Amino acid sequence: MLDVTVIEDPEAAAVSLDPIRARLLAELAAGPASATMLAGQVGLPRQKVNYHLKALERHGLVELAGERRKGNVTERLMRATAASYVISPLALAAVQPDPDRFRDQLSARWLLALGARLVRDVGQLITGAAKARQRLATYALDGEVRFASAAERAAFIEELTAGVSALIRKYDAPDTEGGRDHRIVVAVHPTLKEPQSPSPQTELE
Fold it and tell me: E strands within 103-183?
């Protein structure tokens, strides 16, 4: 099972977004199960669960994990093909975001368009690398920083821009034969606040 996979096909995306099928995917990501087992977990008749499983299997979202005999019946044990799924902008190809249409380094919507392109491109690269049975060379850096003020944040952005730009100028070799282009995306955005869990005293009240 893959940790995460990208859904590029519009029909597969529609299948995955169905609430019942999304629930079945979640159950099968936790471990293999038969239609009978899933029926008890999601509160649906086995025949209806089978119907949904066939749709998921048809689009490569679940796969056969094995079979087992139960009386005179052979049960198919299914499992999710990934622990989690991301829907690529390719699923909405006609209206997918285009970062080149509007460039504004201080726009949150431009950042969103960049993120969407990142999902699309890396998803396609993963698909190609899997078919070629090759490892995909990527790198990501994730961290958090608390700025004391808006001025400090602006200074950080200025230094970050200068530093990354200097590295690009240093290592960029556009005329090198046999070289390969790489895209660099650097993003800074506020951290989402985690919802606070109620205190024991509040729960008792």
Answer: none
User: For the purposes of burial, counting CB atoms within 10 Å of the CB of 157, is it exposed (0-12), middle (13-18) or buried (19 or more)?
Assistant: middle
Q: What is the spatial distance between Cα 33 and Cα 53, in angstroms, rounded to a whole number?
A: 11
pTM: 0.82
**Rounded Cα distance, 69 and 90, in Å:** 41
pLDDT by residue, tens only, the chain of 205 residues: 789 999 999 999 999 999 999 999 999 999 999 999 999 999 999 999 999 999 999 999 999 999 888 778 788 999 999 999 999 999 999 999 999 998 999 899 999 999 999 999 999 999 899 889 999 999 999 999 999 999 999 999 999 999 999 999 999 999 999 899 999 999 999 999 877 665 555 444 4
Q: How far from chain centre, in Å, is Cα 197? A: 26
189 HSE (CA, 13 A, CB side): 14
Q: Which of 42, 92, 88, 32 is nearest to 63 (CA)?
A: 32
